[in-house]
Structure formats: C-alpha cells, structure tokens
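Case study B.
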Amino acid sequence: QQQVKQSPQSLIVQKGGISIINCAYENTAFDYFPWYQQFPGKGPALLIAIRPDVSEKKEGRFTISFNKSAKQFSLHIMDSQPGDSATYFCAASRKNTDKLIFGTGTRLQVFP
Amino acid sequence: GAGVSQSPRYKVAKRGQDVALRCDPISGHVSLFWYQQALGQGPEFLTYFQNEAQLDKSGLPSDRFFAERPEGSVSTLKIQRTQQEDSAVYLCASSEYRGTKNIQYFGAGTRLSVL
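Model:
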C-alpha cells in the first residue's frame, strides 16, 4: 500500500525552465511534508519542508505548494539548472512519529 | 562537523551469510533511523531508536533483521541468513529538531548485494 504517490517518474527540463513534481497522500494524520534531493551514490538530503497550516513555502528557487483539501503537494524548481539534476523524493510523517514515508522518486534531468 | 558515516560502503554476501552494517550518527543526535532503498525506489522505514531504546521496529521485514544501538550512539543493522531479496542500499539517518521540524540527515548508505 503506497501511502505517498509521486509523479512523474522522470522529468526532462531545459536550463532555465520550471520543474514541477507532484505528490498525493491519503492519510490525513500526516502533518509534515519534506522534499529530499538525492545524487547518485549519496544519501537523500533535505531540500525544503512544509506543514499543512500553510499553502506555500518558498526557499530560493524552490517552492512547495500545498493543497490540504485535495491532499496534494508539489515541488516547483524555478530557473532549473544542470546542477539540479538528481532524484527528488517527497515524504510525509505523522504527528508524534518522525519516521518518514517516501514517494517513489522523480529523476530530474536538466539539459543546458 | 562530520555527517552520518556508514560502513562498509559496499558489501557482497553469498546467500545464507550473515552481515553487519554500521552507522555512526552525528554527534549528539538522539534519534537514529534505518531505511532500506531498493533500486529505483524511495527509502522504506525499517526501525527507529531514541538513544539506546528501539522505539519502533515495525518496518523490519523479517526476524532475520536485527538492529541495536547499545550505548545510544553507534548503531548496527544485522541481517542473518541473507537472501537475494535483501539486496538494496541500507540508509542510516540521525536527526535533530529545529523548532518543531525534525530534520533527518542521511548517510551515503551501504549497498548490499546478495549473490
């Protein structure tokens, strides 16, 4: 049972373009939604995170949009750069537990 | 300071062998997690420690998997009688709270290949 569904599986974007990755969840007990970035041979690294009491959070070129009623959230990467080429995972955790439930990942390739 | 360190980085085991994977968390981090990442998939939770106490082991796939953290720092994940389906990257993370946000810092993982 996949608790966090992520799409697309892969994404190709031209340099300077906008990359958009979407996630959906079912469990309304989730209250923390981070995005992780993973380069080949490395562990995932926290990129940005949001709680459901806000609809948007922006940090530099990275923005999370959160739709609580639709139980969906998305990552937007503005002005995508070749250095952003990596696999991105959305995740969620429930209140009173810190274990993360990850999506299946999106492999992003940004071409110059 | 140093991040989360895992060893070995790569491990090849014959089916039926026992393996031990080590995790050195960031100094001072109370919480430690183990995840299993199959090829092309997201990490899946295995188990969680707070200091030396194993508070959640609901993700361990079978009784062949065992984890410990006896002194509340270094942790070891042991897999007995390895099977081919155990082949994966095993990730360790330690975490800290910044405000209300729990931030997990991951090691580079141990890639286990069972032949």
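Chain A has a mean pLDDT of 95. The remaining cases will be described in the next quarterly update.
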